[in-house]
Fold this protein.
Amino acid sequence: MTAYDELMAFERENQALARVAGRLSWDQETVMPRGAAGQRAEEAGAMEAMLHARRTDPRVGAWLEAAKPENELAVAQLRHIRRSYTRAVKVPADLAAALARLTSRSQGIWADARASEDVAAFLPTLEEVVSLKKQEAQALAEGGDVYDALIDDFEQDMTAAELAEMFDEMRPRLVYLRAAALAQPASPELTGKFDETIQVALSREVAQVFGYDLSRGRIDKAVHPFSSGSGEDVRITMRTAEDDPFNCIYSTIHEVGHACYEQGIDPAYHLTPVGQGVSMGVHESQSRIYENQLGRSRAFCGYLYGRMRDAFGDFGVADEDMFYCIVNRVHRGYIRTEADEVQYNLHVMLRFHLERAMMSGDLQVRDLEAAWNDRFEADFGYAVDRPSNGVLQDVHWSVGLFGYFPTYSLGNVYAGCLFEALQAAVPELEVQLAQGNLKNATDWLRRHVQCHGGLYTPRDVIAKACGSAPSAAPLLRYLDEKFSALAAA
């Protein structure tokens, strides 16, 4: 065997073990007994310690030195392994294991605090998480910007400065659109009770309409919807609320976008470094284009309206036009995952600002709730009413995902670029969406984005699919056109 062959065989085992570790997290969020949290933390820590030891094995460095790539795929594989190895060797093994144990335990503490609206019950644990993440970031940054080091874990070659510039470009237009929308007479709202069993059944149907392969996946319930896994085992979760079926349906479509990305990767790449989504920004582009540009389009809303009438009977919405307005109404609210397309990125910008300040030391964890509430009121014009609608609403910080939030907005930017290209490539798109036919749309995304996995860099994936470098301009054009028309309706 060549050095490259030996390295890839070793890496295949790493990938398989990482999938097992991921399944532990999925189990914890869905079906694990509550009393097992302590033991699960030890299990997660042990798995991470073993994986860290393998990722930093000196043989990896030697193989990388000796490996001679013979094609584009081998070059990409080595790029990912080298990046992972370089990052892993900078982080002490005991720190990696401690983070895994703490974040496993922290999830349950966050969930309990959120349920009881008790910020004080969570902050001491969050202080520990922030402290360990700072140590990790300092080790990775080697004197550079610690927040940039964390962003790079999710979006390679992206910096906080570049993200801040992008947000500064987007913010004025988003604020204007929000103000214009909220100045209009209030859109109608969905009212009544919607059987949760029917919601789940309809969401499963919609998931398959969007191409989710349930022979290689499953759908379960969790506090916070998420997607996990890759290759032949890709799982998503949903949540339900009796008075809000859109929460269930659209969170499912969102997670299906993530899942279809993983299911759409070339099977030849499975259990290799390129056999997964290349970055969280590109990943989010798939979930957002599925959920918004496709799922909240006028055409697809007409189809979904009919399916909801079939499932729930007369639910108080007169016609497809009213349904479309309800699905896309711009409204006051607190929850990022329930925000309309205009305001969603403002939620992300808030978190970007706060976590960047925490990592720099400009904001202490003990002051986080007050800082959140002040920033929210300044940005949205009204006060947070309770912690579960504020600083406790997201799971991300409890599991150490600092640097992750900005990729949500980056995904929206990428989705805007992809949607313009998709519309040009599929002229009959609206007609097909109105029929509930997503095949041509999702096939295009599979061919131009999903099948590549990690073969190309994130920016190159978008540029190859769209014919130009990614930019916020297509997203802003899409939002302008859609919400100006809705305001005039």
